[in-house]
Design a protein that fits this description.
Elements: E1 2-7, H1 25-42, E2 46-49, H2 64-73, E3 77-84, E4 94-99, H3 105-117, E5 122-128, E6 139-146, H4 150-156, H5 159-174
Parallel strand pairs: 1-2, 1-3, 3-6, 4-5
Antiparallel strand pairs: 4-6
Helix pairs in contact: 1-5, 3-5
The structure holds zinc ion.
Zinc ion binds near residues 8, 16 and 25.
Amino acid sequence: MRIAIDPGHWSPGEPGAVGHGGTTEAAITMAVSKLIEQKLVDLGHIVTLTHFGEPDDYDANDLWPRVQRAIEWGADCFVSIHCNGADSMQAHGFETFCLRGGDDSLQNRVHDSVIASMSITDRGKKQAGFAVLKGPFPSVLIELDFITNPVVEGQLIDPAYQQQFADAIAAGIVG
Ligand SMILES: [Zn+2]
């Protein structure tokens, strides 16, 4: 399978949500995306990232060019990685989005895999109209957990915890 992984946001241009300890969403999404890529390659799949967080990668600031790159590359599916943010420092949990009214097969596999293998609050399978979900292939946007929760922020920067997420997400992708 040809799998496009989209590391949500990008540093330094648009870092996304920021934890109270200063961790950026972009740093976590890139780290976890690279771990997912490695896991999928180990499993024999072909993987691309939609961007590499390079300062001259101007298109990374826009969402549709990421999908366009995946289309031109010939992706069979598209997985966008994000961390959530909230005003409440207590907010926590895992959630996924598919396109409203769209194909939810990839969402179901990834969501169920993470919930089955990690001890994390299930905030549910949701639908939205995000641009990155509008490609012509099964797509899912994953909110790993809330980077604005200090306890969660400590988990998200732990490479072993990132690996747990990557393994569970990769297992769901390949189903
Ligand atoms: Zn995000």
